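Teaching assistant here, posting this on the class forum so everyone can see the example we discussed in section. The complex has two components, and the goal was to see what a joint structure prediction looks like when all of them are supplied at once.
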Amino acid sequence: AQRVTQPEKLLSVFKGAPVELKCNYSYSGSPELFWYVQYSRQRLQLLLRHISRESIKGFTADLNKGETSFHLKKPFAQEEDSAMYYCALANAGKSTFGDGTTLTVKP
Amino acid sequence: KAGVTQTPRYLIKTRGQQVTLSCSPISGHRSVSWYQQTPGQGLQFLFEYFSETQRNKGNFPGRFSGRQFSNSRSEMNVSTLELGDSALYLCASSLTGQESNEQFFGPGTRLTVL
């Protein structure tokens, strides 16, 4: 069975500090991994996906198959990054989401 | 392009009743997935429909069912409501439901069971 674990429910950093949101997964095949974000009073939306290998809003995420991780990183956090972040794994049309991490960036 | 819409946005029901929620995907999207979001359980996958067929199913009891129409609009039905069914129900659409497809989420329907 596929599983996604986000060990931190809450994460708080100061503006300008680096931030890393952890995501570990369990899946025997080659998964497709995503990070979704939900800003206050907005709907859930895609932030980035591992196959794109892109940086969105300064965020990057590298798939580490050896450690089965897909951590989300940003070198300098901004206040507007405060949101709920979900890591998700997709396989055969089924998506499994982690429990989410609430990131608060303090001024 | 209009986003995913869900109706109604809020619903209050009592135990034992049944409820039907509706989702209209983005035009051209053929895959619709449903999720239950609760504070304690996070986002739980209910099922996914593609071309009017249920293609994937999560671990929910048979009281939860759905369907998809030829225009890709989807409905979800919950029968014999229980207090624990109180949640935000999210619908997401994607082009084909392939793993690499981005899912676009609706605003959700907030269901309260009294």
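For the discussion questions: Chain B touches chain A through 27 residues (CB under 8 Å). The longest strand of chain B covers residues 42-50. Think about how each of these relates to the inputs above.
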